[in-house]
Design a protein that fits this description.
disordered N terminus, 2 helices, mainly beta, 2 domains
């Protein structure tokens, strides 16, 4: 009995330690804002690197962040920031300092779904890094999170977020200067797409995308998608295209890409694709297909017709592939296809 009690005390101690360590790791609050007080006023008055903590409650306010700081709530669903007007995104991050570091965490950002189009979070400028952690972003008439990086390198990290019920799309990473890491996110029921990658570089891991117009649309310079579930979207699971200006790279590994209303994976443009170790099952059109007239896809430009290389192996593919030359993707030894041959 004593021995069992000792183990119980030890288990409780370990559990409490697991809970407390993340809390201890957080930087202390520099400024605390209570419901009814202005978040923007706190941001304007805060020194560089400040931690602005919002208490539990709801604000109707649009805020602009132009310097290094952390904006921290008490948890998505407990601290809510809703748009205060009809023309601006709820949070706009626009900073041109090379060493700026901005964190938005533990918040709900809620739109009203009405026109004109606006985003939950808009990120522009050339800040060194922006992190969005453990947030819920929903009901916006445009995109939940929109990154437009055309003015200098911007590293964006989005983790453990829920992005849903947005009218245009869930997350869009756009621009040659954008580098994004997206992990552990649930992205669902966004009207046009779950995730859009355009001329950027992105790593997507451990995410779940379902019920979106399309799962992932990518014209990224380099996209790596791993260990993710892309199921039950109304278009393709992954629609990937290169572009005429240069080869793009796509790597898809360890994903479940199933029961999408289009193809599981569609490949177009000038693209080098690696597809390994995925389950691709029950997609309505093809399991894997190329943009090519042989696959009943009539493409009229180099940006659309597939002109690249596909390599891969050890995929479980239930459903047709097009062209048939892609059947090696389901074999242990794999292979490579250069198209057109």
């Amino acid at each position: 009995m004593v021995k069992m009690r000792s183990w119980s005390v030890l288990a409780l101690s370990v559990s409490l330690l697991a809970i407390c360590v993340p809390l201890l790791a957080q930087e202390p609050c520099t400024i605390t804002v209570r419901p009814g007080e202005s978040i923007q006023a706190a941001i304007d008055a805060a020194p560089e690197g400040a931690v602005i903590c919002l208490e539990a409650g709801e604000w109707k306010e649009n805020v602009m962040i132009e310097k290094s700081l952390t904006l921290r709530g008490q948890g998505a669903g407990r601290t809510t920031l809703a748009s205060g007007d009809d023309v601006r995104e709820v949070v706009r991050v626009e900073c041109y300092e090379d060493d700026a570091s901005i964190v938005i965490e533990h918040l709900s950002l809620v739109g009203d779904g009405k026109m004109p189009e606006r985003c939950g979070v808009l990120i522009r400028g050339a800040q060194r890094s922006v992190t969005i952690e453990s947030c819920s972003i929903l009901k916006h008439s445009a995109v939940g999170i929109y990154v437009a990086a055309y003015s200098g390198p911007t590293q964006v990290t989005i983790s453990n977020c829920r992005v849903f019920w947005n009218d245009c799309g869930g997350i869009s990473i756009s621009g040659p200067d954008a580098r994004a890491t997206i992990s552990g996110c649930y992205i669902f029921h966004n009207s046009s797409y779950g995730l859009d990658l355009f001329h950027s570089e992105a790593t997507v891991t451990g995410c779940t995308l379902f019920g979106n117009g399309s799962g992932i649309l990518t014209m990224a310079k380099k996209a790596t998608i791993s260990d993710s579930s892309i199921r039950g979207n109304y278009g393709d699971g992954i629609d990937a295209r290169g572009w005429a200006a240069g080869d793009a790279e796509l790597t898809v590994t360890g994903c479940d890409i199933s029961r999408n209303s289009g193809s599981g994976i569609s490949l177009g443009g000038s693209l080098r694709a690696t597809i390994e170790g995925n389950t691709i099952d029950g997609n309505r059109t093809f399991g894997i297909s190329l943009y090519d007239h042989l696959c009943r896809i009539f493409c009229l430009s180099q940006d659309v017709c597939f002109t690249g290389v596909v390599t891969g192996k050890e995929n479980t593919v239930r459903g047709a592939v097009c062209p048939q030359e892609l059947e090696f993707l389901a074999t242990p030894q794999g292979g490579e296809l250069k198209w057109p041959e």
